[in-house]
């Protein structure tokens, strides 16, 4: 079984501070931070995506599709490490065993938990 444990230098940081900073500085017409609004949507969406990833273990085509969608929203909000893991899952789903898929999904889930903590800390 392939191990997905990485050295800290092998993966991007939890968040991309440039993207987050840009979103924090953008305001809607009521003066609220765009980041704060998008993060709440992201939290709901991510929980759903993680459930979908778990349900798709052993179905590489479905797993690729869900991982691709999760990668997009993660990267657009600056969740760099989460986006990178989703990219790995997306590009390697066909070649991984079900156990390896599960292992990588567990890493995605742990990384989402870390990302969530960072995003909550950054919310205004």
Detailed description of the structure:
The protein is mostly helical and 124 residues long. The chain has one domain: HPT domain (Four Helix Bundle (Hemerythrin (Met), subunit A)), CATH 1.20.120. Helix content is 69%, strand content 0%. It has five helices and no strands. The protein has helices at 17-25, 34-55, 60-76, 80-92, 98-122. α2 (34-55) runs antiparallel to α3 (60-76), α2 (34-55) runs antiparallel to α5 (98-122) and α3 (60-76) runs antiparallel to α4. It is elongated and about 45 Å long. The chain starts with 16 loop residues before the first helix and ends with a helix. The model is unreliable at 1-9 (pLDDT under 50).
Describe what is shown at a glance.
By secondary structure, the protein is mostly helical.
